[in-house]
Design goal:
about 400 residues; alpha/beta; Alpha-Beta Plaits; 3 domains; 3-stranded mixed sheet; elongated; Cation_efflux_TMD_sf; transmembrane; transport; monoatomic cation transmembrane transporter activity
């Protein structure tokens, strides 16, 4: 409820999240809220830590300070990633948002390493921790703030599809666990003289490190070229297939240049006997309308397919039966027969699960097996098979 109220109050035209300015406003709001709450929590926890002499509480305090710095970097990341395209970066600077999230992740890990060392020193050289009710209540209040901040970041991240803010939501939820552990250590100090504070400090530091590792994994994946969102893949394929004369699609490749900055290319099969100007108009319309609808830049390549002869239809049906029961093969496309009389080439492409194929056999072995099965039926055909990896 509060999250929606903040969005409604501070972001104009907040429903239009495809607009870059609106999206940046969401990012700035999340960053500013994160800075305010984390600086406030840092001040509370540092004061509590100094009062009761707890290294675990102070570790948690500086974790909040690093979270405030993370929010600042998030704001900077949104600002830089929105810079327009230039000669050196023709697709814009959207990936800077991922890089800013990666910097945040490494900052979180540095804090974790530092407090492992400090907590270990406390285990070796224990110092008494004094339980006081007010500091304990303040820690409990801070946990409530972090629960809300986690839900707020997740809400904003989901609204604008930001991996940086989704990761921030997960990080804040991790802070809830660490702060709860710290609260337990404070409560335990009331009943035992065992130096539990140092051990809890190590657990908190390890939780911080795990959070940092999770953030690194989350943000480095799109930089390395992760598989596209299945929903986007399905929307593009179904969108292209909805246009007149297009009978099939394949070879969809999607490049991610940052949130809201995707370029996609796809091959569309069309009848070979259709007027070229007529189908060109259809393809142009499809590119324009789908690009606008999905907020991407789509390029469609036309593949003329001739399946209007009895020979091609029969051969295609027989080949489909041969590959149907092979779990490595996902689909077939660009099927055609070239040549005359005894010199005929049967040409087609197959899409395979590359990872599974490497575990079972070599690509050439798969082609040889298919060719052998086809030769048993049609020895007159010379088969030319292209194996395409599945980029989806």
């Amino acid at each position: 409820m509060l999250s929606r109220l903040l969005v409604k109050k501070f972001i104009r035209n907040n429903s239009n999240t495809n607009d870059e300015k609106v999206r940046n406003s969401y990012g700035f709001l999340a960053g500013i809220v994160g800075i305010i709450i984390n600086v406030m929590l840092f001040a509370i926890k540092l004061s509590v830590g100094l009062i009761v002499g707890s290294i675990a509480v102070m570790a948690d305090a500086f974790n909040n300070l690093s979270d405030a710095a993370s929010s600042l970097i998030t704001i900077l990341g949104f600002k830089l990633s929105s810079m327009p395209a230039d000669a050196e970066h023709p697709f814009g600077h959207g990936r800077l948002e991922y890089i800013s999230a990666l910097i945040v992740a490494f900052m979180v890990m540095i804090v974790g390493f530092q407090f492992i060392k400090t907590s270990f020193d406390r285990v070796i050289n224990p110092a008494p921790v004094t339980f006081q009710l007010l500091p304990f209540i303040l820690i409990a209040v801070s946990i409530t703030f972090k629960v809300w901040l986690s839900s707020f970041n997740k809400f904003i991240g989901k609204t604008i599809d930001s991996s940086a803010l989704k990761a921030a939501g997960i990080d804040a939820l991790g802070d809830v666990v660490t702060s709860s552990t710290v609260a337990i250590s404070l409560l335990a100090s009331k009943f035992t003289s065992f130096p539990i504070d140092g051990y809890i400090g190590i657990l908190v530091a390890l939780a911080i490190l795990w959070s940092g590792y999770s953030l690194v994994k989350e943000t480095i994946s799109p930089l390395l070229g992760e598989a596209p969102d299945p929903k986007l893949v399905k929307a593009i394929q179904e969108g292209v297939m909805s246009y007149q004369y297009i009978t099939g699609v394949h070879d969809l490749i999607i490049h991610n240049y940052g949130p809201g900055k995707c370029m996609a290319s796809i091959h569309a099969e069309i009848p070979s006997d259709i007027n070229i100007m007529k189908i060109h108009d259809v393809i142009d319309k499809a590119e324009r309308e789908i690009s606008e609808k999905l907020n991407i830049y789509l390029v469609i390549h036309m593949d003329p397919i001739s399946i209007d002869t009895k020979e091609i239809l029969e051969a295609k049906t027989e080949v489909e039966k041969i590959i149907k029961y092979n779990p490595l093969i996902k689909s077939m496309h660009d099927f055609r027969i070239v040549g005359e009389k005894e010199h005929k080439n049967l040409i087609f492409d197959i899409v395979v699960d590359s990872a599974a194929l490497r575990k079972i056999m070599h690509e050439e072995e798969l082609k040889e097996k298919i060719i052998s099965d086809i030769k048993d039926i049609h020895p007159e055909y010379n088969c030319i098979i292209t194996v395409d990896p599945d980029f989806m």
